[in-house]
Each structure stands twice: as structure tokens, then as C-alpha cells.
Amino acid sequence: MQRFTYPVTLTPDEKEGGFVVTCRDVPEVVTQGETIDDAISEAEGALEAAIEMRIEDGMDIPVPSARKRGEHLAALPVGTAMKAALHVSMQEQNVSKAELARRLGLDEKETRRMLDPKHGTKVPALERALHALGKRVELVVV
Asked: Which one of 3, 26, 58, 122 is most buried, by most CB atoms within 10 A?
């Protein structure tokens, strides 16, 4: 099972006010917010940008650690989480974009676009691609 909700630490900024946000699983996530809600919202934006960069660069996407006492959770938007799941599944199974395109009956350009974090790929297309890799999508609302 793949999850894309990461624990983040909010540290009060004594000098400037608000909170500094960090994520131990994705160290490039560093941001800030004036309130707790604002800080978590900023964390989710920074997390999305970091995961998108990792997908674009073909890097690993870390598995989220268990939340520790005092940590908050930051989640990826559904579309980005599905692209991350597709990226991780392709890496785990050593499936290239060309092979995924063949399985889906698409050309490789369409598959590249599907994996492009900046392209607004529709959820059903991502779900179909994940199914082609033997994965099932389940949405959990907490």
C-alpha cells in the first residue's frame, strides 16, 4: 500500500512569529506559516513541489514515516498522489514509459504527458495506468 501523507514538524519562530515547517522524510520541504493551519497548507504546497521535482528527475519518492507525537500531517493532492503512485510502481516493477504506453495502447508521448506533474492528467487515466501495473486505487478520507 502506498500513502502520500507525510508527517511535518512545526517549530515556533520566536523571532519572526509563526511557524517554520520541516519534513524529515522529504528534507527539501522547508516552509513557514503564520498560523498552524497556514503552516500545514504551506507544507502541503512545498511537499507537492518536492514530489513533482522528484518525479521529473526520476528520483525515488520516500515512504512516509509514522507520525510522531507533536507532528502534523501534510497530504499531497489526489492527482499528484496518483502520479507519485504511478512513478513508484513503475520504478518497483522496472517498467519504462514505453512499456507502460504499450500496455495502455498509447504512444509514448501520451504516457510522458500523463507522468508530467505539470500536466492536468485526469484521474480515470491515472487509475487505468495504475491498473495496468496491477494496482488498485483506494481513496481514504480522514
From this structure: 26
For the four alpha carbons of 48, 51, 55 and 61, in that order, the dihedral sign comes to negative
The pLDDT-based confidence of 141 (bands split at 50, 70, 90) is confident
* Pairs from 131-135 (Cβ < 8 Å, separation ≥ 24): 132/100, 132/103, 132/104, 133/86, 133/89, 133/90, 133/93, 133/95, 133/100, 133/103, 135/85, 135/89
Give 12's strand partners: 19
Distance, CA of 103 to CA of 105 (rounded, Å): 6
Please give the model's pTM, rounded to 2 decimal places. 0.91
CA distance 116 to 79: 11
Q: CA-CA distances (angstroms) from residue 83 to 30, 31, 88, 125?
A: 22, 23, 9, 10
Q: Find out if CATH 3.30.465.10 is the number for domain 5-75.
A: no
Instruction: Give the domain ranges of the chain.
Output: 5-75, 78-132
